[in-house]
Amino acid sequence: MHETLADLLSRNADHAAAYADRFDDLQDGQAPDAVTVCCSDSRVLQDAMWGNDEPGRLFSVGNIGNRVVQRTDEGEVVSGDVLYPVAHTGTDLAVVVGHSGCGAVTATYDALTGGLSDAPGIEHCVSLLRPGLKPGVEALPDDRSREDAVNDLVEYNVDRQVEHLRDSDDVPDDVTVAGVVYDFADAYPGERGEVHLVNLDGERDPDALRAANPEVADRVSRRWTY
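Above: the chain's sequence. Below: its structure in token form.
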């Protein structure tokens, strides 16, 4: 057996022993407080970043590029895995979680600036990001390094995903939509692993966000205002 698989099964046995009595109220349904849309990067610890160890609290969605859209015959719509908890479990908070050094944003940036391509499945995911990121790439200051450009575009991508959710007729108006960036690469001031609020219901101005939300003013941070 693969050594890693054996280790995972062993760790799961410990998990099962610790959580055996924590599903009693969840076996017949769920009502998560929030849906989080995270990049599936292995460095992004989707529940641990929130200190969450409570089954049923977070509906965690992961994909490369923390996308909220999928293509259908009718065009682009909010992805079903993101929409499900909002439409069927009463969840009224959606949090889009980008992260520093995002590989999907990097691939999209490279595709837009150098015409690079990848395997078809990855290319499909990048193609879902490309239309939204193209204006951002064009608006980047000329003196941006590649690393800084990617981290600026991480914010820009989060903004676009927030915009998709807010513009969709399938997402009720009373759902709060937040955009954050999880930083493990020193792209923001503060500790590695901190989540930085960059967008709340379409508001991107840090001063306005701090004024309106003083209780989390120290968690508001942006690299790029445009």
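The longest strand covers residues 176-183.
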